[in-house]
Design a protein that fits this description.
Layout lengths: L15 E6 L3 H10 L8 E6 L9 H8 L4 E3 L10 E4 L4 E6 L2 E6 L11 H9 L8 E4 L8 H9 L3 E5 L8 H8 L5 E3 L1 H12 L15 H17 L8 H15 L4 H10 L1 H10 L11 H18 L6 E5 L6 H17 L5 E7 L2 H9 L1 E2 L9 H7 E4 L2 E4 L1 H4 L2 E5 L11 E5 L9 H14 E8 L13 E5 L4 E4 L5 H4 L12 H14 L3 E5 L4 E5 L17 H4 L5 H14 L3 E6 L9 E7 L10 E8 L6 H10 L3 H4 L11 H55 L3 E6 L4 E4 L25 E2 L3 H11 L3 E7 L4 E10 L5 E10 L1 H28 L4 H14 L6 E8 L2 E6 L3 H7 L2 E2 L6 H8 L3 E3 L12 H7 L3 E8 L5 E9 L7 H26 L5
Parallel strand pairs: 1-2, 1-7, 2-4, 3-4, 7-8, 8-9, 10-11, 10-16, 11-15, 16-17
Antiparallel strand pairs: 5-6, 12-14, 13-14, 17-19, 18-19, 20-21, 20-24, 22-23, 23-24, 25-26, 25-30, 27-28, 28-29, 29-30, 31-32, 31-36, 32-33, 34-35, 35-36
Helix pairs in contact: 1-6, 3-4, 7-9, 9-10, 11-12, 25-26, 25-30, 26-30
Pfam families: CheB_methylest, CheR, CheR_N, GAF_2, PAS_10
Organism: Paraburkholderia tropica
Keywords: Chemotaxis, Coiled coil, Hydrolase
Amino acid sequence: MAASDPANRANAHAPVFAVGASAGGIAALQKLVATLPAHLPFALVVLQHLPPDRESRLADLIAKWTRIPVYRTTDGMQPEIDCIYVPSSGSILTLEEGLFRTRPVEGGCRRPGIDTIDAFLESLALHPARPAVGVVLSGTGMDGAAGAVCLRQAGGIVIIQDPLTAMYDGMPTAILHRGLHDHVLPVSAIAQQLVACADPAYVRPVRSTGWTSPAAASLGRVVQHIQQQVGFDLSGYKPSPLLWRIQQRMDTRKVWSFEDYASLIEDDPVELESLMRGIPIHVTEFFRDGQAWTVLLDDVLLPLVDDYAGQEPIRVWTSACSSGEEAYSVAMLLDEAARERGKAVNFQVFGTDAAPELVARASRGIFSESALAGLSDERRARYFYRTDGAYRVKRALRQKIVFAPHDLLADPPFADLDLVTCRNLLIYLKPETARDVLHALHRALRTGGCLFLGRSEPYPLDQQDFLAVSRLWNIHRKVRAAPDARESAAPRKRPAAAGAANLAVLRTAQEQANIPSVLIDDECTVLRIYGNTETILKLPAGEPTLKLTDLVPRQWSAHLRLSVRDALNERKPLVLTQLFDRATGDTSMAVRLTPLDTPADARCMRILVSFIRDPDAPDTLAGRDMHADLTGDAALDVDASEQANISREELEASREELQALNEELSASNDELSRSNDDLNEANTRLQDHVVQLAMQSRVLLAGSIMTIFLDRELKVRWFTPSMRDVLPLAPADIGRSIADLVPKFSDLNFYTDIATVLDSGAARHAIVANDEGRSFLRKTFPYVSETGAVAGVAITFADITDRTRAEVALRRNQAWLSAQKEAFQSAMNGRPLDSSLGILIRSLVSQADDKRRCAFYIAEGDVLNHVVGMSDAYARCVAGFRISTESLACGLAVATGRPVVTRDVLDEPRWRAWTWLAKRFGYRGCWSFPVETSEGTLVGSLAMYFEEPRMPSELDIELAAAFTHTAGIIIWRHLQMQDTQPLH
């Protein structure tokens, strides 16, 4: 059963359990749902990866596996116990304030089919009803791991399918390796465990091991190295999210040992930078959690504006501001509050973050159109203007905000603030570190100032000198100063590593020994310098700048700027050669541009620029340093005669060698010229082939040809757009296994034929049909490489629906015509009436595929009598049925001369006195058609009975008309024969 709105069952905040699955998860879901009890003490949400452009049929499938009501979720629906909910494939489902919320995937930070489970589990962790349980079944990738972190931190329960029983173990293994699970079970045991978790007496199993494993030791080594090299202290962060972020980088770099990865970041500064960019959790958007901002405006900002007396500005601090959206949101609300009250209000917003490049990006105030999707047109027009395909914050608002680097865990806080926001940070910190941060934020507020933590931070502050303004959104007001001991507590110091001086010297030596390099962002701003770049980068006259394009030689600027953009767009390294070298005065310099891996939202794009000299070129800096060392008497000891010790013979030999090399070079140039001509000719031929292939590709793509090509590993390599009619394909499916896709047609031999073609090389074909009644001719044939080996298979589908339907209709028409002819011949030969009409009955029943029953009745006076079709018991029950306009079914059809169609006899008032008959003989639908002669005399009726309610199609009407016409002729002849019988 699938419906749009559940019946109103129970409490406002029902316990919600979630089950997520991806590749190979359908079979696991079927087994789990089939083993659920008849009644659930919780609401169950089933999440499955599907492309957003493909409608999910999961709700219909689950409804076949269980009697528990199954509903498709809609925005604003309230979850109820004893129900199963399935979201749409085109939206991201979350649970907010006890209601389901669905958001389109376009333009959001969530990716459909990749973050579906994480998004819901993270929102489930905030659901007030307990327990909250998450189940992760078979699937590839790591969706569910981030959600499991949030769920465990909120006290929820995580269950995973035993990876040994999963068709694809990627998702359960990702949680297992991170130690986030409470239970590892085969699918057959998960339903029983869900019921146990819903019991108030449930006790979470005690973990047998803690953070004493080798992974924990490696984590400490990584944290220490980051602290020494970057100066960022991660010791206060919880181990689970840190280990998860490190595991993501390990998966990307294909490093399977934590110890090996710790060694990698010590040797590879590029990987260290990539890891550091992935560790901070930057979850931000304009006015995230809109209701929270409404409460903040009404209960905090408007009172601040009302009480503003004009002496000191209103001071707001947005800590951990990421790319600045939250700081700009506060500034916009303050400006709107001042406009609403009609007051000139001076305010200052401070936005800080530990990452300097994020602060620099926030300070620029440039945002993409998708980032502003949640803003109203009025706010967009008031506070932004369009430039270069993006939106920039207007100067009037930008001047109200100060952005600066600041590490909340180590640097001293601001002071005398009216409002501090700190959202989505404390949940990632250890409890003792979070307490230190809260104390620092407390000190930063003036008495009466407010702290806005947001709903995701599980820290009640009622007992910590705060008074709740909104418990739901964790907004609190400071009501008194803290005790002296707490107020005087110093900020956390960055732990000094042992031998700090030696490490600093070592680091300087390493940087000067390495290839000179600089780390820049996507706008060419220098973030860090490695090695000695003294002879490469020069600070120009005028206003100081950190733009790399201003620091390099002028000849490089334009080329370097375009190359940086190309390297970031293509996500691959580029090398620029033959660049002017200031040190040597020639073109012996090369520059390598290495883009660093960026997160999904691409907030912090970076690129490492390395300057590489020709090893044979003179190093003027080294020469200058050496000359500086030759001072005093040592310089006088250089004998002038030793400087002219090259003999004439040696010079002559060098000249001859140079001449030989020159002749060899000339010959090489001639050969290169010929090779170049050959290359140009080959390139011309290649271009012709490319044009031909492009034309052929356009023909294939423009038509309705359905073709897909698989390699020997059954991975999709190419397909035409029309293949989407039979398989849920998208461009991102290139390289995906065909087994991961759920066909839209029924074909038991699909995978068997593919394997047969790969093994034998013989083509296979079959006729298949989909759920919409369309028929296809499927051909599978081998793709043979130039060596004669089978390199894959090509599969084509041809739509033969019209042909198939025409063939079926032709066969039916021929059968019906044959039956009518046979019935006429039977009547002409004087066979009994029931025998002739029985031929028509058998044809009507055999050519239909709906298990219908048919019968003919003959009019005798003002009553009807059964002739043939139904059982003798039924014939006795209806014998002598009245022909009247007050009758029903056949009696009414003969009385009026019009067909009488009853879709469901149980819903028809006329049938109330006769429903016993329908129930006894097992039918619900009843159609009656009058039988009349060519002269218009009504002589009987044709009745059709169906087990389920049903209305006739056009074909049914045409068929009834043809057979009643034939029956009319046969009955008329029968009556004529009775009238001409001699009297005895």
